Amino acid sequence: FQYDLSNIIINVNFEFTYFKTNYDGALQNGDPFKTTTNNLLLRAELNIGYAFNINNFVLLTPYTGFGFRFWNRVILGGTTTNDLREDYSWFYFPLGIKAQFKINEKIFIGLDVSIRFMVKGLIKIYLNETNPSYPNVDLNLGNKILFKIAAPVEWHISNSVGMTFTLWYYYSAIGKSETKYILGGMFSIHEPKSKTHQFGLNINVNFYL
Predict the structure, then answer these.
(1) Which pLDDT tens digit goes with each residue over 71-92?
(2) Which residues lie closer than 8 Å to 143 by C-beta, 6 or more apart?
(3) Based on CB atoms within 10 Å of each CB, which residue in 36, 68, 97, 156 is the most buried?
(4) How many CB atoms within 10 Å of residue 58?
């Protein structure tokens, strides 16, 4: 959803994604481990920017905002007794700039580059579901700077409705978490640092007020 008030642009975006991935990692003791994971991703983001008309064909919009990202991952056979469920979540503050180039009255192409400052990164590990004697564990993740590059093509079907086709690349990372000890110190648990590279194509329907 996008609201355009003179040169002030307000954009609200919500994403829902479900997919399976091949997991190629290791157990807490370092032993190699391969399996499949089920993934649910949710993202909500609110941005506000100001559009500068460079000329009749070029528009530059710096923007900032606030976002939240949630990732539910189920590692199939992640323990000797059951699947392992984990919830990752963090807030972030995007800072970016979007360039739009007018092809004609209905078609615009662009380039959108942003960095995202991650805060309050958390992971919840549901160990109790694998063994009732184990507690669930909450860990603070190491916050990182993320970035996204997108190339949108906007088609203004009418004054109130349009569509956007966007090719994008998204880089995210988490730092090593704190270490916690469970069962009276018998076991230690932490989330290692990791990086994620994602590519995709979004198709959006836009409503203009």
Answers:
(1) 999 988 766 557 889 999 999 9
(2) 90, 117, 118, 119, 120, 121, 175
(3) 156
(4) 12
- HSE value, Cβ hemisphere, 13 Å, CA-based, for 19: 9
Taking only the tens place, the pLDDT of each residue in 122-134 is 999 999 888 888 8
Total Cβ atoms within 10 A of residue 9: 18
3-state SS of 91-136 is EEEEEEEEEEEECCCCEEEEEEEEEEEEEEEEEEECHHHCCCCCCC
CB burial of 125-160 (b: ≥16 within 10 Å; e: otherwise) equals bbbebbeeebeebebebebbebbbebebebebeeee
Q: What are the tokens at 18?
A: 């479900």
- Asked if 61 and 49 touch (Cβ cutoff 8 Å), the reply is yes
pLDDT at 1: 54
65: number of Cβ within 10 Å: 20
CA separation for the pair 28, 84 (Å, rounded): 13
Q: Which residue has the higher pLDDT, 189 or 81?
A: 189
